[in-house]
Design goal:
By secondary structure, this protein is an alpha+beta fold. The protein has a single domain, classed as Roll (Thiol Ester Dehydrase, Chain A). The chain has two helices and seven strands; from the N terminus they run E-E-E-H-E-E-E-E-H.
Length: 131
């Protein structure tokens, strides 16, 4: 099904900004950049989900975005991830997010498709090396 991933495929997630997603600046609680990055990764994962079997997943390898406007606690953020490039297991996305007033981010995100068994073995080896 990896062959079915092509440029133009997209996913969209909508999130209500809650207190746990915020940082405080002056008198305002605003959507934090780390939580925005988490949302964009989750959106890209959602876009790939219909195309990956249970034996595969994806890992983020690059995030290049500009967080260009503040979003207040209680606003709704809509994030869209659109595939722009596919190079074997490497998938590149165009990312945008809006809060109903402003475009709050734009940029790109890259993910690699991994086989969960192989990835799990590497993680187990790393965990064993730590003990």
């Amino acid at each position: 099904m990896l062959d079915d991933i092509t440029a133009g495929i997209s996913g969209t997630l909508t999130r209500l900004v809650e207190e746990k997603d915020c940082t405080t600046r002056g008198d305002y609680q605003i959507f934090s950049t780390p939580n925005l990055v988490l949302l964009l990764e989750e959106t890209a994962i959602e876009a790939l989900a219909p195309f990956l079997p249970e034996t595969q997943s994806s890992v983020g390898t690059n995030v290049n975005v500009v967080h260009s406007a503040a979003t207040l606690l209680g606003q709704v953020v809509t994030c869209t991830a659109t595939v722009t490039e596919v190079d074997r297991r490497r998938i590149v996305f165009d990312i945008t997010a809006t809060d109903g007033v402003d475009t709050i981010t734009s940029g790109s995100h890259e993910r690699f498709v991994v086989d969960l068994d192989t990835f799990g073995k590497r993680l187990a080896e790393k965990a064993a090396a730590l003990s």
